[in-house]
Amino acid sequence: MRIIKSINSVIFQEGIINFIKRKQNKTFLDNRLLYTINYNGKKTKIFLNKKFGFVDNYIFENGIYEKEIIDDIRSELSSEKTFLDIGSNIGQHSLLLAPYCKQIFAYEPIPLIYTEFLNGIKANGYNNIVLQNTAIGAREENRKIYFHIGNSGASSFLKNRENNPEILVKINTLASTLPKNQEFHVVKIDVEGFEAVVILGNKEIFLKNRPTIFLEFSPNCIRREGTYTPELLLNFFLNNNYEIFSRVLNKTFTEDDPELYQTDNLILRPKAI
């Protein structure tokens, strides 16, 4: 009778595929897990939470998320450089890259995700990551963000059709979160359609530092957000002596081009003056 009950449980409740994965330790057994990522010969601890969805599950299933982007960011870093991680989520990029730079300033506005990142910093014993529970924008304010259930990394200030819960979060300008006269050299921006506000709302400090920027670019979301246009954002860089590399097209642009206006992960590099 017990065997029959177990078989029924596997077939009709858990499912055969999930049963096999569980036996092979390929799915979360609990909601929260301290996981070790092996990257570039180093072991890095990170807290994964099944409730946060896509990124956490991707790391658990595949060992690392966006390795190609992390490799490219690492190639721009050195022991003398400062890295900004704007829209850090659970902190995988910063946790992996902390050994390769002098200082990291990271920003995550959603308190639950911020806490998991903070726990990851403590688990690794890092003292060169300054994590702040805020978004970056054009002014200091409080604003509602839509927390994406099942994919916390896709949480956005843009309302979507999924009726995700609203969370009130802080927004600060970049200058107000950094020490006075702090230089920075490399920036990662992943803010789900708020990227033009982050950059053009803080353009003076970006022009002063002229960092290399790794940008998740979503022209449709920028248009929906409405403060700026994607054309204005890209031409800000092109007009200030930057070149734009498209991962999708594997091509570098030095002038505006219709090909650029698609969802992409761009690399914005300052040209030598």
From TrEMBL:
This is FkbM family methyltransferase. InterPro entries: FkbM_mtfrase, SAM-dependent_MTase, SAM-dependent_MTases_sf. Residues 85-243 form the Methyltransferase FkbM domain. It holds the Pfam family Methyltransf_21. It comes from Kaistella yananensis. PANTHER family: METHYLTRANSFERASE, FKBM FAMILY PROTEIN (PTHR34203), SLL1173 PROTEIN (PTHR34203:SF15). Keywords: Methyltransferase, Transferase. One of its GO terms (biological process) is methylation. One of its GO terms (molecular function) is methyltransferase activity. It comes from the Bacteria.
